[in-house]
Amino acid sequence: FFVFLPSNMLRRAFKTFPTAAKNYRTTTILAVRKGGDVVLMGDKLVTAGSVAVKPTATKIRVITKKDHPDVLVGFAGSVADAFSLLSKLEGKLDEYPGQLLRACVELAKAWRSDKYLRRLEATVVACDPDGIYTVDGMGNVLEGDSGVLAAGSGGYFATAAARALYDVEGLSAEQIARKAMNVATSMDIHSNESHDCLKVTKGSNESQKL
Fold it and tell me: Which SUPFAM superfamilies does the entry link to (predicted)?
């Protein structure tokens, strides 16, 4: 019993497979904003297919601009593409200082429309004390209205754990982020349990490495 499909239908079907692969980022990046603090965490594992290549990589960075709070940035996806996008985001923050949301929107517009940028395979998580956002190559800019946002293969685990802990009295943004990352990276086989952690407090322009 055989079913023959028109060639144009087959082409459309096979085109969906690379897209699904591109959207699968093997890492865990988590941002939590609460009580005037914003905390960004990322695991440190780099993989090539099913092989663990490096267990001590740094996937989160700080963008510093004079007279404005530091912006914390994390990436899920290709390392080379991540650094290209970091440079582009820094350029947008030069154009729109102190306006992280505007910078993210402009990055998404450029990412979607530019022939070179469209090839970059990564998801960006950017945050400051006023907001947390993710940007992807489809032109999507998502804001973490609940105070929690994550990316990567362990992102859903991290988001669920952080949201469950968010309203627990007495837990700070850092405590929530650490507990949620421990849960996520213990479940996600593409992330490890070694983490980097950065924090910026509202009213202070400088970030802290925790």
Answer: N-terminal nucleophile aminohydrolases (Ntn hydrolases)
Domain count, the chain: 1
Per-residue pLDDT tens for 22-78? 444 679 999 999 999 999 999 999 887 778 888 998 999 999 988 899 999 999 887
Phi–psi pair at 112, nearest 5 degrees: -75, -35
- Please count the other Cβ atoms lying within 10 Å of the Cβ belonging to residue 144: 20
- Give the span between the Cα atoms of 39 and 196, in whole angstroms: 10
Q: What is the CATH number of the domain that holds 41?
A: 3.60.20.10
Residue 78 in tokens: 């290709």
Domain that holds residue 149: 28-200
Task: Tell me if residue 27 is catalytic.
Answer: yes
Q: Is residue 128 part of a domain?
A: yes
Helices (H), the chain: 7-22, 79-95, 100-113, 155-166, 173-187
Nearest to 25 by CA among 43, 2, 7, 3: 43
Q: What is the DSSP string of 64-86?
A: --TTS--EEEEEEE-HHHHHHHH
- Which tens digit of pLDDT belongs to each residue from 83-128? 888 899 999 999 999 999 999 999 988 888 877 777 777 889 999 9
- How many other C-beta atoms lie within 10 A of the C-beta of residue 172? 15
pTM beyond 0.90: no
Instruction: Tell me whether residue 4 is in a domain.
Output: no
Q: Which of 26, 27, 123, 159 is labelled catalytic? A: 27
